[in-house]
Design goal:
One of its GO terms (cellular component) is plasma membrane. The chain has 804 residues and is α+β, with helices and mostly antiparallel strands. It has 3 domains: 333 residues, no CATH class; 215 residues, no CATH class; 205 residues, no CATH class. The protein contains 26 helices and 22 strands. Helix 2 packs antiparallel against helix 22, helix 9 runs parallel beside helix 12 and helix 14 crosses helix 24.
């Protein structure tokens, strides 16, 4: 029986070769996209899986009700008090500078080592790396202890057996207490060295309002993080508010409402990469992954729809086969099994082809996402095979049920091609297919428009030909180093101007403080700068004046703010220039002397926030944070100027340190990469959807028009013109297309409007993508169907009329 079924299956595959190829192509493309996106998703979810304590470790985040924003910092007293007051919390680890870098010297060599961590002494309790030399127990016991990775040990000492060795950096001698091996699995926490943040911890031990650290809490087994969040809010945040209120003379609730944090959130270590609201480390985009995954599933569904459409359209060709088999005793269940088997064979072949195609495309896919994914995860095989089973069920059930339901007498006594059975089903499924195609066209055009809008938007500054050079922060007086470098770099040929600002465009480094005026308080980004920085960047002055080096007050307590700062306080321009405010980073009031136009130094996804610009010498501790120098180059010989600066840097400025620089306009352009990738992916998926849909439409229209060839012959004999016949044959499909687009418009509008809500700077929902989708699908439908309709008008009349 099985042999007969296979023979029948392959006869029908060959007989309907076009539809077989279309089904194979559609399913292969759909499954390929599904597997690639699934691999990307699995890779993002795989971070920190190596950690045996991952189920107990949670990242700490704060929530500020007033700003409706999350934070990732905690104060030292909040962390150690939480362990004392909340019994479900077993331990904590604090960390800062997860990207520390130093020039390290040993008796063997000198190496500039990056990717270091500054942490509290419990670090290795949370991240139990394999120790290959020394011990993790007391690895961070003193402020001169250092633990290093196997790779760093080899670079510094030429061996991994380096425990007890001495290394000098940051003007101190450190003793290697442990050498560890970094985990092989995906992890965001892979430090090349770890040192104790001793001085910072000592300075901040009693400072409840100084949020300098990131934090992980280790919960006791079985502890409920939701319960702990409530206890933290009640016992720790309330205590912090009480202390702050007492110092400022406010009511506790007033203080909490004004300054926060008002709540906190614990995110599992495994979700740090993809599911956290905010993080010290790079975060994934779960929403985009889900959108891509959904779209890949839609393509598979489109392929299944093609399968259903084509199989039901082929029903008339197999009606007599079904009738004969039923007449000789074939049961409905055996027929359904046979039709399921035919579907499964196509799906299985598509699955195997998809696996081969994934392997072929994987290098390009990895390059696109900057990953190193391999096709060795059993989840991908299992889930994609599960998808094949679902597609087999979806694609096989309806045709199998429909074909096996034919009555033997009905199919054997006449021409089944004239029956209206299945028309409603095919039309309904074709409508769904065209609705999905319409959504992809509309969505692709809106994504393109939004990305183009962001790329062309005026940022409010000019970073062209401005290079940012980060210098070592190990200098005891970095502001004097900046001033010395400024003098020396200005002598280099090709340098047009030099300046400094902590808040650099496209940089992740930022410092935010509360700004208080009477009973009001807002958070604003600190932007200590050199006098000329705003003019240097081409920022426009809105009201007031620039900072002036000739005025002593401009290096004491005068400041410039942006328009967002003014709006946040609700002042007029005139009121602003008459007021002074108290910044949280200083103990003196600052007077506003100027207002600048808003300019965007972050991703255009976010609105420009309040900013305060002041001279870097205004506050004692801020001058110690000077870390870069910005150089504007003359346009005539940029490459030559960069080489001259590089030579100066390596010989005079910082010998032994890397020349770490970037151009602001190029760095800011990278903030668009995420959306450009979304645009590219949407374009690729759009092309795939249209290709699958149009091929399916072509095959379906071919089969349906073939069933009407006798009608065409009769009408042509009666004098109907070719144009009338073509229009008549395509009219049904055009009406289906119109209905599909009209149904898809409100759905597309809602979904794309939700996508646009993620952008602070967004286009208004345009009408033209909906019109374009309507016109394009109508034109493509007419073009695809009319090709077959035109061929139908050229039929041999005798062939179809000789038996009438």
């Amino acid at each position: 029986m099985l042999t007969n079924w296979l023979k029948i299956a392959f006869i029908n595959y060959k007989k309907n070769g076009l539809s077989t190829l279309i089904n194979l192509f559609g399913l292969t493309i759909g499954l390929t996209g599904f597997m690639l996106i699934l691999m990307h998703w699995n890779d993002e979810e795989s971070y920190e899986k190596w950690n045996p304590k991952k189920d107990q470790i949670y990242a700490f985040q704060t929530y500020h009700t007033k700003e409706k924003s999350y934070g990732v910092n905690i104060s030292y007293p909040m962390a150690y008090t939480a362990v004392k007051k909340i019994p479900e919390i077993q331990d904590y680890v604090l960390f800062s500078q997860p990207d520390a870098a130093y020039k390290m010297t040993t008796k063997h060599t000198t190496v500039f080592q990056e990717n270091g961590f500054m942490a509290s002494e419990t670090f290795f309790n949370f991240f139990p790396f394999t120790i290959i030399s020394g011990s993790a127990k007391d690895a961070l016991k003193t402020d001169t202890s250092i633990a290093i990775s196997k790779q760093t040990a080899k670079k510094l000492f030429g061996t991994t057996n380096a425990a007890g060795e001495s290394v000098k950096f940051n003007n101190k001698n450190y003793i290697v207490t442990a050498v560890y091996e970094l985990p092989e699995g995906n992890s965001q926490i892979k430090p090349e060295f770890v040192i104790m943040a001793a001085q910072q911890l000592k300075n901040d031990k009693e400072n409840w309002g100084t949020y300098n650290f990131g934090c992980f809490f280790m919960l006791k087994k079985g502890a409920d993080p939701v319960v702990i969040q409530e206890k933290f809010k009640r016992d720790i945040l309330q205590l912090r508010a009480e202390i702050g209120a007492k110092e400022s003379g406010m009511q506790v609730q007033q203080y909490m409402d004004l300054y926060g944090p008002n709540d906190m959130l614990l995110t599992p270590l495994e979700g740090l990469k993809l599911h956290t609201k905010l993080s010290w480390f790079a975060t994934g985009d779960f929403k985009t992954i889900m959108i891509l995954f959904t779209l890949s599933v839609l393509i598979v569904i489109l392929s299944a729809i093609n399968f259903i459409n084509l199989k039901t359209a082929e029903a008339s060709q197999r009606a007599k086969e079904v009738g004969v088999r039923k007449a000789i005793g074939g049961t409905r269940s055996s027929l359904m099994i046979q039709f399921f088997m035919e579907t499964f064979i196509i799906c299985l072949v598509s699955y195997l082809l998809a696996l081969a195609l994934v392997e072929l495309l994987l290098p390009s896919f990895n390059k696109f996402f900057n990953k190193e994914i391999k096709l060795n995860d059993w989840h991908v095989y299992a889930y994609s095979l599960g998808m094949v089973m679902i597609v087999t069920l979806l694609s096989g059930l309806i045709p199998a049920f429909y074909l096996s339901s034919f009555k033997a007498i009905e199919t054997l006594k006449g021409n089944f091609a004239r029956s209206k059975h299945g028309i409603w089903l095919r039309n309904g499924i074709l409508t769904l297919q065209l609705m999905i195609s319409s959504f992809f066209i509309i969505g692709g055009l809106i994504v393109h428009s939004q990305v183009k809008y962001m790329m062309n938007k005026d940022l409010g500054f000019n970073g062209k030909q401005v290079m940012v050079i980060n210098f070592s922060e190990n200098d005891p007086k970095p502001w004097l180093k900046y001033e010395r470098l400024k003098t020396e770099l200005s002598k280099i040929e090709g340098v047009e101007a030099i300046s400094y600002c902590e808040a650099v465009a496209a940089s992740v480094r930022s410092s935010i403080s509360n700004m208080d005026y009477q009973e009001q308080s807002i958070n604003a980004q600190n932007a200590p700068m050199d006098y000329n920085y705003l003019q240097f960047m081409g920022v426009k002055l809105h009201k007031g004046r620039w900072l002036d080096p000739a005025l002593a007050s401009d290096t004491i307590n005068n400041a410039i703010v942006n328009e967002a700062f003014v709006r946040k306080f609700g002042w007029t321009d005139e009121q602003t220039l008459q007021r002074s405010f108290q910044p949280g980073f200083d103990n003196k009031k600052y007077k506003i002397v100027g207002i600048v136009k808003d300019f965007n130094i972050k991703n255009l996804k976010y609105k420009v926030g309040p900013m305060i610009f002041f001279h870097y010498r205004d506050t004692d501790w801020i001058r110690f944070n000077v870390y870069n120098i910005q150089v504007k180059l003359k346009p005539d010989d940029i490459e030559g100027t960069v080489n001259r600066i590089k030579k100066f840097w390596g010989t005079k400025a910082e010998p032994g340190y890397p020349f770490n620089y970037y151009f602001i306009n190029q760095k800011f352009a990278k903030t668009f990469e995420e959306y450009q990738k979304q645009q590219t992916l949407f374009t690729i998926l759009n092309a795939m959807v249209l290709m699958v849909a149009l091929l399916g439409l072509f095959a379906l229209s071919s089969l349906m028009i073939e069933q009407k060839l006798k009608d065409v012959a009769i009408r042509k004999t009666l004098g109907a013109s070719d144009g009338t016949l073509i229009f008549g044959l395509t009219l049904q499909f055009l009406w289906i297309t119109i209905a599909a687009v009209l149904i898809s418009i409100p759905i597309s509008y809602f979904l794309m409007n939700e996508w646009l809500k993620d952008f602070a700077y967004r286009i208004d929902m345009p009408i033209w993508p909906f019109i374009v989708s309507f016109c394009v699908l109508l034109i493509l439908t007419f073009a695809v169907v009319s090709i077959k309709a035109y061929k139908a008008t050229k039929v041999n009349l005798v062939t179809y009329l000789k038996y009438e």
